[in-house]
Amino acid sequence: MPVKKRKTYELDIIDLAFGGKGLAKPDGFPVFVDRCVPGDRVFVKIFKKKKSWAEGRLINIVNPSPLRQEARCEYNRFCGGCKWQQLPYERQLEYKKRHVVESLAHIGRLKDVRVMDVVPSDYIYEYRNKMEFSCSSMRWLMPEELADDSIKKGFGIGLHVPGTFDKVIDIHNCHIMPALGNDILETIRAFVAESGLAAYHLRKHEGFWRFVMLRHSVARDQWMVNLVTSEENSDVIKALSKQLVKKFSQISCIVNNITDARSGVSTGKEEILIHGEDHLIEKLGGYQFKISANSFFQTNTRACEKLYTKVSEYAGLDGSQTVLDLYSGTGTIPIWLSGQAKQIYGIEIVHSAVVDARENVSLNGIDNCTFLEGDIKDVFKQVPEKPDVIIIDPPRVGMHKDVVGHVLAHSPGKIVYVSCNPATLARDLEMLASRYAVLEVTPVDMFPHTYHIESVALLVKKN
Ligand SMILES: C[S@@+](CC[C@H](N)C(=O)[O-])C[C@H]1O[C@@H](n2cnc3c(N)ncnc32)[C@H](O)[C@@H]1O
């Protein structure tokens, strides 16, 4: 075997593989290494060894690839957020397209599908409209911080080291959210540090401060601050709110979500409105959307408009069709298409998302969108009309096989499949390919500097 666990090796990175990791092949044996660029010569320590592949940790770069660029973010070597910053954006798009093509060919056995160039994100920094930072009483120290005695070693607010639940990097500057978010976070950090209340201990499950969620409305340039705590303490939360509102006129909403759940989920069991309204208003195209603290909304607003434009184009509606939108979330796709269809039905499992969808429909004065609540595999039968077009936008795991069965049984003339995971996209398209021809797939980049890629596929019924 060419490599052994816990040993270090000097390797040449020859490609990028699944999950965005660099690939080296000493004597033909695949070794995956995170945060590498093809053309890098790197020093690597093997930490996982399987029969047919191994995984190594980057120790240092012996010879950087000519492709490599300086990452803008100082936490880039450790943070789980955006690991591709060292790769120029055009190259990121090339690799993302290739990932879609290869997933379709290898997982879905769909070799001849036309895959278009990736639709890029106009903003490659400051593009995320929502960030969720964890509070920790035991923050993880970067190597240079370990040597600095002036650094407070306890409390931190930030993002996790990938694959860990208890290692939080104290992030002072995150480049993928709008810059003001960092100033807001800094004010919160200073307040929390002086508050006399402990940040959450992620192993002992003790402490008051749990998460800070920041949300931004591009349309109104307004911010929501969601302070997630383990219990209620209105004096402290109101004091922080007062400071924030005084300093940042852009904050239009502050809520306090309270949760004693042990899991790292920032959704509160109870929400208390502290300042302003309990939601933001965002716009997509000409439509307005109400976004509450716990609602799902696509995280890159401008790229979402590009995604939905592609959905409209593929749906090719002329006002006469009935559309069924599976996995409809807060109703954004039905509302986006409402002016182009006779009637649209959405199915969504999360109650609060369905409530938001219905509110969003009335907010926009729309009368041809109806939402059904429940698991699609159970609720599908309740759709009162046979759809001409089905839109499918499932979570990363893709479609349940019973849902595939329902879709095939209804066999609409056209299917538009939106996916955030090329692997499950390929698997599901293969299942649909018995009755449908996959005419075209367009990847849309919603997540610059990460290997994630959204895709829209157009399927038409075979004769
Ligand atoms: C990727 S989101 C898409 C949301 C929406 N189309 C959008 O663009 O904002 C997937 C949605 O599917 C919902 N979902 C997941 N499993 C479901 C199921 N079995 N039945 C119905 N909805 C489900 C989730 O709650 C989530 O809102």
TrEMBL record:
Domain of life of the source? Bacteria
CDD domains the record matches: AdoMet_MTases
Catalytic residues in the record: 420
Q: Name one Pfam family in it.
A: tRNA_U5-meth_tr
* Entries under SUPFAM superfamilies matching the protein: Nucleic acid-binding proteins (SSF50249), S-adenosyl-L-methionine-dependent methyltransferases (SSF53335)
GO terms of molecular function: RNA methyltransferase activity; S-adenosylmethionine-dependent methyltransferase activity
Q: Which Gene3D superfamilies has this protein been placed in?
A: 2.40.50.1070, Nucleic acid-binding proteins, Vaccinia Virus protein VP39
Q: What class of enzyme is it?
A: transferase
PANTHER family, per database record: RNA M5U METHYLTRANSFERASE, TRNA (URACIL(54)-C(5))-METHYLTRANSFERASE
Binding site residues for S-adenosyl-L-methionine = 298, 327, 348, 393
Q: Entry's InterPro entries?
A: MeTrfase_TrmA_AS, MeTrfase_TrmA_CS, NA-bd_OB-fold, SAM-dependent_MTases_sf, TRAM_dom, U5_MeTrfase_fam
Which terms are listed as keywords in the entry?
A: Methyltransferase, S-adenosyl-L-methionine, Transferase
Q: Which GO terms describe its biological process?
A: RNA methylation; RNA processing
Q: EC number(s) of the enzyme?
A: 2.1.1.190
Protein name, please? Answer: 23S rRNA (Uracil(1939)-C(5))-methyltransferase RlmD
Query: Locate the TRAM domain: which residues?
Result: 2-60
Species this protein is from: Desulfobacter hydrogenophilus
Similarity comment text for this entry = Belongs to the class I-like SAM-binding methyltransferase superfamily. RNA M5U methyltransferase family.
